[in-house]
Amino acid sequence: MKRILLVTAFLLLAAPALCQAPVVLKTTEFGKGSTIVLVHDFGGTRTQWLPTAKRLLARHHVVMVDLPGHGDSAMPDPFSLDAAAASLAQVVAKQKGDSTVVVGYGLGGMISLMAASRNPASMKGVVVIDGWTRLPQPIPEQMQKYVVQMLETNYDAFLKQMFVSSGRDSNDGKILHAYAVQVPAANIKAYFRQLLNADASGALKGLKPKLLFVGTEKHWPADAKWTDVATTRGYASAVGIESRRIDKAGPLVATEQPDTLASVLDDFAARAIASK
């Protein structure tokens, strides 16, 4: 009897978290036609997509999304990458599944893959730009506590180093950092803790929507083969994955090369939507 009471109490306490509805993500939508959902990277905002989005809106219904805890979107409580994926899946589910492609940069790509795995019928294709299914350079478990401690005790310096070094050059890095400082510190920390051991490679197994990896110069050097990039970024097991490389671009590819990126997305969306 005592054990039954303990189990019942646990279930009652856990119920709010288990039954928590996904947070509603803030979006900006315009244009008509097949849908392209654009998802930004960790520390970013939906407005970063504007230059590319403007080049797509003549042919597509464009949906720019703020990830949970970024821009104007609320943070799930408790937070997890699964909760973020559920929130994105909710946005995608409002579109027409037979004519929707989801595009995610970096972390946005990982979360897009997770959303596709949750509800594959909601989209015809997924585009991951410089994304990964697990950290390209994993942090050993024994080192993680020191990294988290640094994040807590020297947050400003840690944030600056992390985002400035992410740019293709110092100017890009400063822009990325300027976006990241607008995200509440608690949200950045929550994401970072989740990313230490994140592995979304399971989403690749039996993935129904067509998949395209777009690599920029920052993460796909000119002398690197696709097979090497796929292994490093966790896509070696993906079946039927396509790949494209964009030169002279990095994390700000949506503003640095909007015409090129829009052309790549337009071409892939047409083929993905036409496929059976």
What does this structure look like?
This protein is of the alpha/beta class and about 280 residues long. The chain has one domain (about 25-275): 3-Layer(aba) Sandwich (Rossmann fold). The chain contains 11 helices and 7 strands. It has helices spanning about 1-20, 50-55, 80-95, 105-120, 140-155, 155-165, 170-180, 185-195, 225-230, 255, 260-275, and strands spanning about 25-30, 35-40, 60-65, 100-105, 125-130, 210-215, 240-245. A 7-stranded mixed β-sheet has the order 1-3-2-4-5-6-7, with helices on both faces. Helix 2 links the parallel strand 2 and strand 3 (about 60-65). Helix 2 (about 50-55) packs across helix 11 and helix 5 (about 140-155) packs across helix 6. The chain is globular and about 50 Å long. The model is unreliable at about 1-20 (pLDDT under 50).
